[in-house]
## 1
Amino acid sequence: MPLSTVPVRVLRLHINDKHASDLSVMGREVNFVWNYFNELSLKLFERERRFASGIELQRCLNGASKEGLGIGSAVFGALRAVSSTARSGSAGAKAVAPDVRWAG
């Protein structure tokens, strides 16, 4: 099968110092939510030997923006989709906990 040639655009941004602290806070909050998804999924897997669906993860985050996380619901949805997709793709013949890395 021949390799297809797909044009790739590279976007380079220079972020001013005035936004660096806000982006750092948002990055920590995204890592917090990602680690929360991992923890929930691991507990569910250990207890019931199944993977958490995207809807189950969404129910656990209802109202999180109102409680003080500064990232919006669109970010929660994107993280939920990536997390559930990564876990569902690793379900094979035997149930083994998927390797989704913790964010630091």
## 2
Amino acid sequence: MLFLIATLMGLTIFGFVVTSQGRGVEVPGRVYKEYRLEDYSPWLRNKIKDPDYWRTIRSCILGSKTCAKLASWTPLDYLEKDMSPVQSGCCKPPTSCNYNMATVEPQDTDCYRWSNAPTLLCYECDSCKAGVLEDVRRDWHKLSVLNIVMLVFLIGIYSIGCCAFQNTRRAETDYPYGENRMTKVRPRWDYYWWRWWQDKREQLY
């Protein structure tokens, strides 16, 4: 039981540490948020940057048709509607991108990774990886809260069990748990008077 409590406590602490960063950035004039990969914990970034790991996630996003839901959006929809983290990061270029050929100002590297091809879009963008991490962060945070509830429940059960065990030992020995020794007890004052009276009676009869 102690091992289970310690393991659950360790996982809960690790979960809160890993999910303490992120949450996205507000976009002026938009309902949705945008997400930056550098805002998340190094452990999560290293996981998501693994090519094999990302290839699997990318296939899942394509199969879910998450971005297909935005195909019918109008420019007004992009101003008034919210997006999930994956939609915000994978299905469109960053809002700051300027595709006017006349511009010479440096832009976010994700602006150059964007493609209009339905199978490409921004799936190789850092913002897409950040959107996936935001979904992971939210789910993991909920799991950590559930772990806390389970941890409190297990500690309560363990405490009740320990109290019951100690009470059983005390009932068997008539001493508190861990104490089982004889002590000398000095008789009360009337004990000597009673013994004297009993001796006299025996002498008379």
## 3
Amino acid sequence: MGALDSTYGALLMGAVASGVLYGCASVQTWNYFTRYPSDRWYFKLTVASTFVADTINQILIVYTGKCNYAPGDMCIDPFLVYTYLVTNWGLSEELGKVLVCLCHTSLVHHMYQGYTTFSVQCFLAMRVYKLSNKSLVSTASVMVLVVAQFLVVLGG
């Protein structure tokens, strides 16, 4: 199993780090809604939708969904990391089959990451607009990069 340490070890460490960062985002979201109850509705909507997208993104990190192991052979693996590191531990032929499951959730996962990034960067562009004395050049420069990055995410 030494050859799998670099791949599955990285998967485990990434899932743990993602969980820790998700916990930080949860605390920040809670603090925002308890400390700023009179904020404008669109700020609240931005924070709430970003948190929901981040929650779905975190679920997709550990969820594989339905996937084809072989033609006509369907499976449901609810926990990606668990399936990789516990259920199929020591079964190298099964570990290769589970890799197929990543393709199905990867696109959806990518889209939620793209939405989260887009909404946060649009908020940044709004702040640039306000802090630059409503400079359209500065704001347009930021928005061109934001939209270009989002189009790259949509393209795949």
